[in-house]
């Protein structure tokens, strides 16, 4: 794992650096594999980034968009991560509809939806058995409780790395839980197979969680972002208010 930590002066610099890093990855991915795959995060922090991406001239027909997690609400719901990304980015560009791969939230049972999306991922990336899809970039944030995606402290979704199905498969998508509200989420093992994981973090309220996440020793069940140790690159992009108290890593 190649770990990189950068503290940026402000929100604009955070957006600019995130954009530059993503744009860096697109040509090589398309040259090598014919497509670029990215999984998005929700929340307010990445919205300016999505708006910035929408302003670029990119080979949209070769870019495929996924989500690392989703609240279990209809796509038109104000809390939907998909809705935010569509309004800020995807509805503004000529990306083919077939290149957008949202997590399904229509089934009555979230666990059924998780299995449906896992099947979609395996089929898109043409992997089966114990193989993992490998996304080019996964964007993540953290909460002030140290969660990332919808991997919340001391929830069942954190246990999947230790368990396999009878077929030897580690789950790719599971049901997360936040105060009794179900969500769909990529599992830590799936995230850790990405070529590049980028955390984008803003706000002084994240300082206590970051101190625990960056500590030499800590409990990943209490601070789930510690579970993210990708095989590829790991980037932590922090604005000054979030990262000013971190010593150099």
Structural summary, described in words:
This protein has 249 residues and is α/β, with parallel strands linked by helices. It has a single domain, classed as Rossmann fold. It contains 7 helices and 9 strands; from the N terminus they run βαβαββααβββαβαβα. The protein has helices at residues 11-33, 47-54, 81-88, 110-125, 188-191, 207-214, 240-243; strands at residues 2-8, 36-40, 63-67, 69-71, 137-140, 173-178, 181-186, 196-201, 233-239. Strands 1-9-8-5-2-3 form a 6-stranded parallel beta sheet. Helix 1 crosses helix 2. The longest helix has 23 residues, at 11-33. The protein is globular.
Characteristic key phrases:
Rossmann fold, 29% helix, 7 helices, 20% strand, 249 residues, 9 strands, three-stranded antiparallel beta sheet, alpha/beta, single chain, globular, six-stranded parallel beta sheet
Structural class: alpha/beta
**Could you give the count of β-strands?**
9
Q: What is the CATH-assigned architecture?
A: 3-Layer(aba) Sandwich
Global Rg: 17 Å
What's this, in brief?
The chain has 249 residues and is an alpha/beta fold. The chain has helices at residues 11-33, 47-54, 81-88, 110-125, 188-191, 207-214, 240-243; strands at residues 2-8, 36-40, 63-67, 69-71, 137-140, 173-178, 181-186, 196-201, 233-239.
Give the SSE map.
Elements: E1 2-8, H1 11-33, E2 36-40, H2 47-54, E3 63-67, E4 69-71, H3 81-88, H4 110-125, E5 137-140, E6 173-178, E7 181-186, H5 188-191, E8 196-201, H6 207-214, E9 233-239, H7 240-243
Helix pairs in contact: 1-2
């Amino acid at each position: 794992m190649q770990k990189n930590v950068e503290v940026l002066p402000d929100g604009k610099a955070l957006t600019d650096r995130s954009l530059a890093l993503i744009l860096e990855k697109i040509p090589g991915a398309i040259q090598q594999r014919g497509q670029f795959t990215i999984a998005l995060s929700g929340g307010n922090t990445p919205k300016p980034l999505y708006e910035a991406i929408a302003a670029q001239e990119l080979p949209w027909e070769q870019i495929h968009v996924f989500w690392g997690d989703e609240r279990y609400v209809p796509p038109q719901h104000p809390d939907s991560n998909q809705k935010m990304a569509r309004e800020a980015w995807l509805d503004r560009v000529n990306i083919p509809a077939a290149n957008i791969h949202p997590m399904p939230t229509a089934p009555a049972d979230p666990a059924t939806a998780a299995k449906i999306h896992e099947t979609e991922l395996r089929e898109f990336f043409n992997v089966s058995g114990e193989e993992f899809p490998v996304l080019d970039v996964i964007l993540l944030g953290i909460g002030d409780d140290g969660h990332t995606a919808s991997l919340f402290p001391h929830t069942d979704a954190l246990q999947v790395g230790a368990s396999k199905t009878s077929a030897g498969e580690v789950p790719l998508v599971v049901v997360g839980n936040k105060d009794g509200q179900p969500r769909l989420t990529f599992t830590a093992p799936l995230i850790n197979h990405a070529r590049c994981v980028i955390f984008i973090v803003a706000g002084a309220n994240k300082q206590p969680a970051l101190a625990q996440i960056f500590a030499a020793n800590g409990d990943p069940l209490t601070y789930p972002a510690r579970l993210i140790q990708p095989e590829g690159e790991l980037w932590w992009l922090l604005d000054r208010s979030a990262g000013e108290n971190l010593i150099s890593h």
